[in-house]
Amino acid sequence: MKNKKEMRTWLDDLNLDHPLVIAGPCSAETEEQVLKIAHELKNTDVSYFRAGIWKPRTRPGMFEGVGALGLQWLQKVKAETGMKTCTEVANAAHVKLAVEHDVDLLWIGARSTVSPFIMQELADALAGTDKIVLVKNPVNPDLALWLGGIERLHNAGIKNLGAIHRGFSTYEKTKYRNIPEWQLAIEFQNRFPDLPLINDPSHITGNRDMVFDVCQTALDLNFDGLMVETHYDPDNAWSDAAQQITPKALVQMMIDLKIRKESDPEAKFNHDLSNLRAKIDVVDNQIIDLLAKRMQVADGIGVLKKSKNVAVLQSKRWNEILGKMVLQGEDKGLSEEFILKLFKAIHQESINHQEKVIKG
Ligand SMILES: O=C(O)C(=O)C[C@]1(C(=O)O)C=C[C@@H](O)C=C1
């Protein structure tokens, strides 16, 4: 699969003067709930009304969605509000029912994207439709698996494709429900700049208080749209209560979010930017020189350790370094998260250098 300008045709054809917004409840609960939310979202920036019909839940015994019945409610949403509709599909039977009920956009969930078998089943079931299909990232931060899933749909002749960044599972507890790993989304855009990329702040945060900030970061990183879970009574939602926001809050958020341009033609701005970029280039070169110097020292340590048969990994020393660097970083306004990532990468490279010396 290669990047092509036409990949964004379906999005361009919407002629929006703001990012694409997909919103609606995590789950369709009752007909009244679905229609009430839909009417509150009518005449806002929302183009697509979302509602989960079949819900993949971590544990059995939780609310697993109303099933096909909810698709009739989505048809009513379309008839009464004019909004297009979307839902998640996870197997060929879901696809058949969603297509029969005229759902406009289908998304594939993170737990499906991880499985090439499921992706192939969905690609086969969707072949021949002109539906928009958005593929959420797999639960693990694996860009090749994400792109591979999209490629299966592309190879089945599905033209209106896009991706949803919903964050990644981690063993460690973080402030996020699913950590964003923004670098991976940036890498995605580098590889496929014309494949529409939508951010899902609800699943990244798991917490409505953080939704705005994640949306702003996504827009700052040129995402094409947002998919935001929305409920008129979030606290009493049947699923994902903590992360849903009200339609009113969504409207306010769309007013408050800053939509930034990719560049500006003004001469002074471009002159100042070039100067600052030249400074960055100098510093980047210094960083590379320093890292190379550090690895030369590591090579020396490797030679010394080899002579006395001493192990490469020295956890006590390493933890002392990490602790010191986190403190120094804080002093200089560098986040703990960044310092840990940076020094863990440096440590790994130092170990690789020493291994090479010891084996060589
Ligand atoms: O101090 C050592 O023993 C080293 O090998 C150097 C170093 C480092 O790069 O700072 C690398 C590996 C060890 O786990 C600890 C520290």
Automatic annotation (TrEMBL):
Species: Bizionia saleffrena
Keyword Transferase belongs to the record: yes
Coiled-coil ranges (or none): none
Name the UniProt record assigns to this protein: chorismate mutase
Superkingdom classification of source: Bacteria
UniProt entry tagged with the keyword Transport: no
GO biological process, one term: chorismate metabolic process
Family annotation (Gene3D superfamilies): Aldolase class I, Chorismate mutase
Span of domain Chorismate mutase: 267-358
EC code(s) of this entry: 5.4.99.5
Enzyme class, spelled out: isomerase
UniProt KW keywords: Transferase
